[in-house]
Amino acid sequence: MFVQITKEEFSKEVLKKAWYQTNNIIWALVFLYPLIGVVDYICAGDVWVQFVIVRIIIVLLVLGFYTVFKSNKYNYRILLHCVFFLVSCSSAIFCNLVPTDHLQIYCLVYSALILFFNILVFWEPVHSIVQSLAALVLLSVFFNTLNSSSAEDFIDNGGQFFFIVASLSCLIPGARFKVMEREARQQLQIEKSNEQLKLQNQDIVEKNRIIDMQYERMLKMDEQKNSFINIAGHDLKNLIGSIVMSTNMIKEDEDRLTADQREFIGYITESAEKMQYMLNKLMDVKEIESPELKFNLEIFDINVEVRRIFRGLVETAQMKNIALADNILKLPLNVKLDKVFAGQVFQNLLSNAIKFSQTNNNIKVITSLQRQKFVFEIIDEGIAIGQDELDMMFNKLQTLNDASTSKESRLGLGLSIAKLITREMGGELFYRSDDNGNYFRVEFNVIN
């Protein structure tokens, strides 16, 4: 995750960490500096009380400076310089007032204070160098004014330790400053990353809430859809049942009917029974919430079924002055399929071919046996429907809009159903629309 940090944000984070370290230095000094009075009691002789009083005064001054700088949000570096100067002044005075045999202890204490300060402080190394130089200057000034011994004695009795520690401890703040700056940057990156993660989490929660709402809406819509299918399905069952009942009543007086009337009644009865069969199948699928149809497989001559569909659509084609060319094999070809649904596939393809074709056109219906497969073909050499529109009709179950008002509305539901049924029964359906016209092809395995 990429996190961008501005200079202002980084400066605030560094200042916060600097004040945290400054607080540690101040309060550690407030509690520890008076405790050095134990050393004064042991080593300072008669003046140990004055030394302790000075230390207490230094602590009170440090607390006063700290309170003023903290409340007014002054620069922490100036506060540390003031504190270090007070400690350096008192320590330099103590080193030059104690007897020579105890000088080494006070130089070590002074060195420890400088080392402690440089270990904890968070500032640029140049400030530590300034403070070390100031400590050396103060020590030299008070040596000249308060100490009667020689410089060699002072150096031999602990002064060398002080000079070494004061010089080397200046190197610590430089490395520490870089480390703490890096820590401050990393801390800021972590905080900003956490903020971004919180925002992203809130966004995810909100999106999940929207998804849950949409899911609930879809469930309600699904319930409404199921209710509509139930109502429509039962109403259609009643209507189809009425048609079947009426045709059966007419058949009772079959002797009074002409041959053509009996043929038409046969078509009506057969169509109504097929509609009833398909509706029952679809209702069964809906009731068990299953995406699969259960076919009633039977062995039959598929050429006979195609010829029956062909004859049923001849008059529909004649109404548009379209000539249907019969190239259906006379040879029996047995298949094991659901006869009703197989017939529906041929019905949908041929009726749509007639529907989409222009008037005064020829459409060929061909069946053949190729590589142990029954092949059903429709060849329309008229104006092409368009490959894109065929793709939509066969795959997306949606209505195609056509700018030409002379052409019929192209609803792709029947073709989509034909493709679905063909695939579910183990067949294959192909189609093509180009400059040569429109072409449809269905293949099913035949039985030896």
From TrEMBL:
It holds the Pfam family HATPase_c. The chain crosses the membrane at residues 25-42, 48-66, 78-97, 103-122, 129-146, 158-177. CDD domains: HisKA. One of its GO terms (molecular function) is protein kinase activator activity. Signal peptide: none annotated. Residues 231-448 form the Histidine kinase domain. PROSITE patterns: HIS_KIN (PS50109). It catalyses: ATP + protein L-histidine = ADP + protein N-phospho-L-histidine. One of its GO terms (biological process) is osmosensory signaling via phosphorelay pathway. Keywords: ATP-binding, Kinase, Membrane, Nucleotide-binding, Transferase, Transmembrane, Transmembrane helix, Two-component regulatory system. Its EC number is 2.7.13.3. PANTHER family: SENSOR HISTIDINE KINASE GLRK (PTHR42878:SF7), TWO-COMPONENT HISTIDINE KINASE (PTHR42878). This is histidine kinase. It comes from Mucilaginibacter auburnensis.
